[in-house]
């Protein structure tokens, strides 16, 4: 059975996740916004198979290069945001100068597409393209765990007032891709506490199922 640990990182409190296989030998990292010492101590001694990015805003990618070099693992991102990693004007870090210096990373190794499946840490991760917060936002479903990035939060949704945001598109992503999942699916968002699909479908004030 997979286990996961959340790390709340950086000035914006971005959730990074370390997902470990049942044998506690292999791991993946989702959205390492900062190269955090506690996160890396968790990974040391494990075979890190991949870094998965739900999207390429600066607060989700700041630790990518440090982790990639340390653990020699590939980085996955949706192709629509491949150039955001290398361009601080696109990933938002130039916009938030009071929060962060310019953030860039080297290019991703592999690109994600809607409906793709990834075999990682002995499990199958389903890739769902869930745009709206950003054009290349994706969510990862593995069993009854949904790593939702900045698409769906506890009683909230991702902001769409940033460049390339689209509220109508975000609502469609949530209704058509996420709210059709079973009630018990645990939503692990990019910020804030976990929730469930059922709780949000019934109680989210921004998007009702």
Write the layout of secondary structure elements.
Elements: E1 3-9, E2 14-20, E3 26-30, H1 37-43, E4 47-52, H2 58-61, H3 64-71, E5 75-78, H4 88-91, E6 110-112, E7 117-120, E8 123-129, E9 138-142, E10 145-149, E11 152-153, E12 156-157, H5 167-178, E13 186-189, E14 195-196, H6 197-203
Parallel strand pairs: 3-4, 4-5, 5-6, 10-13
Antiparallel strand pairs: 1-2, 2-3, 7-8, 8-9, 9-10, 11-12, 13-14
Could you name the CATH topology?
Metallo-beta-lactamase, Chain A
Query: Could you say what the CATH architecture is?
Result: 4-Layer Sandwich
The percentage helix is: 10-25%
- Work out the count of structural domains: 1
Number of helices: 6
Can you summarize the main beta sheet? 6 strands, mixed
Nearest-integer average pLDDT:
97
Strand order of the largest sheet: 1-2-3-4-5-6
Rg, Å, rounded: 16 Å
**Ends distance:** 30 Å
Low-confidence stretches: none
- Taken in chain order, the helices and strands follow as EEEHEHHEHEEEEEEEHEEH
User: Which shape, going by the Cα principal axes?
Assistant: globular
Beta content comes to 25-35%
**SS elements, strand count:** 14
CATH first level: Alpha Beta
Query: Looking at this structure, what is the CATH superfamily?
Result: Ribonuclease Z/Hydroxyacylglutathione hydrolase-like
Secondary-structure class: alpha/beta
């Amino acid at each position: 059975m997979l286990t996961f640990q959340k790390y709340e990182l950086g000035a914006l409190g971005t959730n990074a996740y370390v997902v470990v296989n049942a044998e506690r030998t292999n791991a993946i990292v989702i959205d390492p916004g900062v190269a955090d010492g506690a996160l890396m101590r968790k990974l040391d001694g494990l075979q890190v198979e991949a870094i998965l990015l739900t999207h390429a805003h600066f607060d989700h990618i700041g630790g990518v290069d440090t982790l990639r070099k340390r653990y020699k693992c590939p980085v996955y991102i949706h192709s629509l945001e491949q150039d955001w990693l290398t361009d601080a004007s696109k990933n938002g870090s130039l916009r938030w100068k009071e929060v962060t210096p310019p953030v860039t990373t080297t290019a991703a190794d592999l690109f994600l597409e809607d409906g793709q499946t990834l075999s990682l840490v002995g499990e199958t991760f389903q890739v769902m393209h869930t745009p709206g917060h950003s054009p290349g936002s994706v969510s990862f479903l593995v069993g009854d765990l949904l790593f939702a990035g900045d698409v769906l939060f506890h009683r909230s949704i991702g902001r769409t007032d940033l460049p390339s945001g689209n509220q109508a598109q975000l609502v469609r992503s949530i209704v058509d891709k996420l709210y059709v999942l079973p009630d018990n699916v645990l939503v692990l968002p990019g910020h804030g506490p976990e929730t469930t699909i059922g709780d949000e479908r019934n109680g989210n004030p921004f998007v009702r199922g």
